[in-house]
């Protein structure tokens, strides 16, 4: 079996054994749900409920303010106790706080939307938009926006990302084993919206059981191909996945649509399928709860708005003192300063590391070995971008095409001097973006 891949990349320890063979189970419902009005890239939602209102499961409680936005829905039934700022994984955000009545009353709007064979592409797109579906691999980009390319961008290919290349995380792996039909159904819905005849599902070869599972699900689908990928990080990054699957290279500063491709996560596709079949919007997700500090690692189906601390308690709590808790994986996840943050739509993992695993080594001087250049999947020169960023020479940072950086962290991982290359590159990118925004104003 030929395995496809991309140039560069690294091989961090997988550490997926904690959860990859454990069937997914449902987490306990929260007594109180803290539902942020912004769980996506773009404009936050406006609350359309008030304190004291009774809400039901699946009811829309936050309405979009612009095209690049995504509505939010109640994951439980109960009473709205407050609408206020509260810590979330990305910083403080306005949240609708709902006290659970545990009646699980489903809102009247939640009902089957039909079938993709009878629904028009416009109807499917509207269903996706109204369900608040966003990229569930962690990025949180509104899916209806991604499926609405400009008219001058001809899309001919859809690729589903089943690589799940981040260490520790196995939520997508379990999904492909337990609900392969939903993954394929969702892909077919996406293909219909875009008018595309060819679809691919890329899966790394450290998930052979998932490859077999999805291959069985597409056995009668002539236009869908399962692509076994070489296990390498960041195999699941959009540009790298596109090159591995179909050998198209997204140009510098470009997007996948520039080469006629749209990429979605397998979790996003499965949610589209569930919403079409049942009418239920995005109110829960599979999250991997794992790491060296957690007592009982597992994959849980968690209601949006459940606090990290409650989920960690359901997994037996910490077996030793945690040095760091991260939303997502160790390479691209967000470290949290408190456990009083809610699970959001993009929470692919809750990674709990002990103090030993969380301790960063002291950086030394760059030895000009060039390893960061050799492995950079975006074909950049991280040592120079970092050096200019540290000297606040942001014009040079831009000249070295820092905005093409996908922030995968491979450079920091491979650096023998343990320099925090990614951190300084991020600072440089944000300064460039801030400058451009100021100029545009």
From TrEMBL:
Its recorded name reads: Ion-translocating oxidoreductase complex subunit C
Question: Gene for this protein?
Answer: rsxC
Self-association or partners: how does it assemble?
The complex is composed of six subunits: RnfA, RnfB, RnfC, RnfD, RnfE and RnfG.
Task: Explain how, and how many, cofactor molecules are bound.
Answer: Binds 2 [4Fe-4S] clusters per subunit.
Enzyme Commission designation: 7.-.-.-
**First-listed, main subcellular location of the protein, grouped into a coarse class:** membrane
Record key words, sorted: 4Fe-4S, Cell membrane, Electron transport, Iron, Iron-sulfur, Membrane, Metal-binding, Repeat, Translocase, Transport
Q: Which organism encodes this protein? A: Alkalithermobacter paradoxus
Cofactors per UniProt? [4Fe-4S] cluster
Q: Please tell me whether the keyword Zinc-finger is annotated for this protein.
A: no
């Amino acid at each position: 079996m030929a395995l496809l891949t991309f140039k560069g990349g690294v091989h961090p320890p997988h550490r997926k054994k904690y959860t990859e063979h454990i069937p997914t189970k449902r987490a306990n419902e929260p007594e109180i749900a803290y539902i942020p009005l912004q769980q996506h890239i773009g404009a936050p939602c406006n609350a359309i409920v008030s304190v004291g209102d009774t809400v039901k499961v699946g009811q829309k409680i936050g309405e979009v303010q612009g095209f690049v936005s995504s509505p939010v829905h109640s994951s439980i039934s109960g009473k709205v106790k407050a609408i206020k700022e509260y810590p979330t994984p990305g910083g403080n955000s306005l949240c609708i706080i709902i006290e659970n009545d545990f009646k699980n009353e489903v809102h009247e709007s939640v009902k089957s939307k039909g079938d993709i064979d009878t629904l028009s592409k416009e109807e499917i797109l509207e269903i996706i938009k109204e369900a608040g579906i966003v990229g569930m691999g962690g990025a949180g980009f509104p899916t209806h926006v991604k499926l609405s390319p400009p008219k001058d961008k001809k899309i001919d290919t859809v690729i589903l990302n089943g690589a799940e290349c981040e260490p520790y995380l196995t939520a997508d792996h379990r999904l492909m084993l337990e609900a392969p039909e939903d993954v394929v159904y969702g892909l077919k819905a996406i293909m219909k919206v875009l008018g595309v005849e060819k679809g691919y599902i890329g899966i790394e070869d450290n998930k052979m059981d998932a490859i077999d599972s999805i291959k069985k699900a597409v056995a009668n689908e002539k236009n869908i191909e399962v692509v076994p990928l070489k296990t390498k990080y960041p195999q699941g990054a959009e540009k790298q996945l596109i090159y591995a699957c179909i050998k198209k290279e997204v140009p510098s500063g470009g997007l996948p649509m520039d080469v006629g491709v749209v990429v979605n996560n397998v979790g996003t596709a499965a949610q589209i399928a569930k919403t079409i079949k049942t009418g239920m919007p995005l109110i829960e997700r599979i999250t991997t709860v794992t790491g060296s500090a957690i007592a009982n690692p597992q994959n849980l189906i968690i209601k949006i708005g459940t606090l990290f601390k409650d989920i960690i308690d359901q997994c037996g709590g910490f077996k030793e003192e945690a040095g760091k808790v991260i939303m997502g994986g160790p390479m691209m996840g967000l470290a949290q300063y408190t456990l009083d943050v809610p699970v959001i739509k993009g929470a692919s993992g809750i990674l709990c590391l002990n103090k030993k695993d969380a301790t960063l080594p002291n950086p030394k001087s760059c030895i000009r070995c060039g390893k960061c250049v050799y492995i950079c999947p975006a074909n950049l020169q991280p040592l120079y971008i970092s050096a200019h960023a540290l000297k606040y020479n942001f014009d040079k940072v831009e000249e070295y095409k820092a905005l093409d950086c996908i922030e995968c962290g491979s450079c920091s991982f491979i650096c023998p001097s343990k320099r925090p290359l990614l951190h300084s590159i991020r600072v440089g990118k944000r300064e460039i973006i801030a400058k451009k925004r100021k100029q545009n104003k």
